[in-house]
Amino acid sequence: MRTVAEPFEAEAVAVAPADEPGIRVNGAPATLDAVQKADVRVDLLADDADGRGDGRRTRSFVVEHVLGPLGLCGVTAAEVTGIDDEWAFERPEHRFCYARGDDPACVVGHPAGLPNPAVVEGVREVGVVERAPPVRRSVAEPVTANTAGGEVTLRPRERGAGVRFEVSFRGEAFAAEVDPAGETAPELVDRVVGSRTPFLVDDPGEGVVHAVADLVSDVAVLGGFEDLVVEADLTGAYHGATVGAARRARERGVVVER
Predict the structure, then answer these.
(1) Tens digits of per-residue pLDDT, 113-160?
(2) Which domain, by its residues, includes 14?
(3) Which one, of 35, 52, 53, lies nearest residue 43 by Cα?
(4) What CATH number should be reported for the domain holding residue 167?
(5) Total domains, the chain
(6) 0.90 cut: is pTM over it?
């Protein structure tokens, strides 16, 4: 496991070291089982009661904006908490959060629709420490998920190769080599986390780059994969396909550890 060396605060979130493997967001594990919503965004639902006595559980909104940057930096274990304390009702996730009776800290997505650049800056400043050898996962055979928002195929790759993303989005194409151990080219990381979500900006050229962060979040972090070729042909609300491909691999029993 690789965790941050020291705690830090970034836009909308605080990030702290973890003693156990895995990333948690407001108490919710960043795993496929905890995904509550996957379409225009990804939400996680905590697996324990929130202490209010009503049986409801804490929901964290737009988690891909923090999981993507952490994955790009090679962080596989961290405690993430939301720190916003003001409502922004022009954002649909804030309205949904308010209607649930939660507080603004449950929304951990970047207000400008970015894969939080401040998280990357924070990780670079405090550094990453490795506390246990990583488990590297791939697939034994290709797996494809199709939704109205796109098609994603996961293909096997040799151990230690990392993840290659071959992405197309509304006629634009982009390829990126990502090292889950944190050795991804800094200029690539900066370009990806500086790209706005296509759900706010109608620019396919920017959207296809942003999609890499979403794929890192959904396939590498939530899915737990470190060695893959990921082919993604995306059009709209594509998180159903990105999360779906990782789920399909697990359901079919083709996940391999080595």
Answers:
(1) 999 999 999 999 999 999 887 789 999 999 999 999 999 999 999 999
(2) 2-130
(3) 35
(4) 3.30.1700.10
(5) 2
(6) yes
